[in-house]
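Researcher: We plan to redesign the surface later, but first we want a full-length starting point. Tokens attached.
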């Protein structure tokens, strides 16, 4: 058996004249947490739907658990778990009824259904709410229940398509704790997200933009793409005004809004720290606190997208 749970070679998906997925090639190791990152519309969900046997590729090839995408789609669907950002739950059923329904859909043996139901309830922390209507659950609880339903049949590979979209940061962190537990138990987790910070939780991640993979590696390797970037964090009340001024300062290569401040890519940090405050003061803008920082995954992604946009066709 191959050491890879997912193998993709030159995968293409077109809808008419629009190319949603453009020559994607990658490998995902067994037991790996693999992140698929990118903005909405980058092609992440289209790739996942092809891997799950829900869409037929236009060209290229892929396999999941050794089964070929396209010709062995039914075998793939039996051997994977899938969870979308809509959670695929039935709001007019109780928590327990949802679990029973998906146990039947996934063909969990009758003799194991009670055991698997108990596992799903414990994992989701819903033992005492099994009789509650699912529509009454908060987003984070629905998320955990959907994950429990997706793994009732103990699939070796789990596809999570934007699973943390629309839930609060605390629920997101708790959900990733569950993903770690599944990975440690030997499951392969293929998770897509547009939250760049979630790449930090993955063993490896691919950054996708306009249907193409523009970077691939561990979080440390991806940050290494910015080894020639010196980054400053700058506080400013008038962010747009400060960005305009920074564009005129020699040695400032790029600026972007991050939270309530700015991130500026500069050639020489010491020179920039000395020249930026006077430039802001001359423009009538108070110079707030400034400091040098290490790039985040969001910085990495912004820089790589800009590099991609500047590259000739």
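Model: Full-length starting sequence:
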């Amino acid at each position: 058996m191959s050491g890879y749970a997912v193998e993709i070679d030159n995968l293409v998906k077109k809808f008419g004249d629009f190319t949603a997925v453009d020559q994607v090639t990658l490998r995902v190791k067994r037991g790996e947490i693999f992140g698929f990152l990118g903005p909405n519309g980058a092609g992440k969900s289209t790739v996942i739907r092809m891997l799950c046997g829900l869409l037929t590729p236009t060209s290229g090839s892929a396999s999941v658990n050794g089964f070929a995408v396209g010709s062995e789609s039914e075998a793939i669907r039996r051997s994977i778990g899938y969870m979308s950002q809509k959670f695929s739950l039935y709001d007019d059923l109780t928590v327990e009824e949802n679990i029973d329904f998906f146990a039947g859909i996934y063909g969990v043996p009758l003799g194991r259904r009670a055991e698997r139901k108990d596992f799903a309830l414990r994992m989701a922390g819903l033992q005492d709410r099994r009789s509650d209507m699912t529509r009454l659950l908060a987003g984070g609880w629905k998320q955990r229940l959907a994950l429990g339903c997706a793994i009732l049949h103990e699939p070796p590979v789990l596809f999570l398509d934007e699973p943390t979209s629309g839930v609060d940061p605390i629920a997101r962190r708790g959900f990733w704790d569950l993903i770690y537990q599944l990975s440690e138990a030997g499951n392969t987790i293929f998770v897509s997200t547009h939250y760049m910070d979630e790449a930090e939780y993955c063993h490896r991640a691919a950054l996708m933009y306009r249907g193409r993979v523009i970077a691939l590696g561990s979080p440390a390797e991806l940050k290494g793409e910015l080894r020639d970037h010196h980054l400053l964090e700058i506080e400013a009340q008038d962010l747009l005004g400060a960005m305009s001024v920074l564009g005129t300062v020699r040695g400032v290569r790029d600026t972007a809004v991050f939270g309530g401040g700015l991130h500026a890519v500069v050639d020489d940090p010491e020179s920039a720290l000395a020249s930026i405050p006077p430039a802001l003061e001359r423009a009538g803008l108070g110079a707030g606190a400034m400091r040098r920082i290490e790039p985040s995954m969001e910085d990495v992604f912004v820089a790589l997208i800009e590099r991609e946009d500047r590259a000739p066709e």
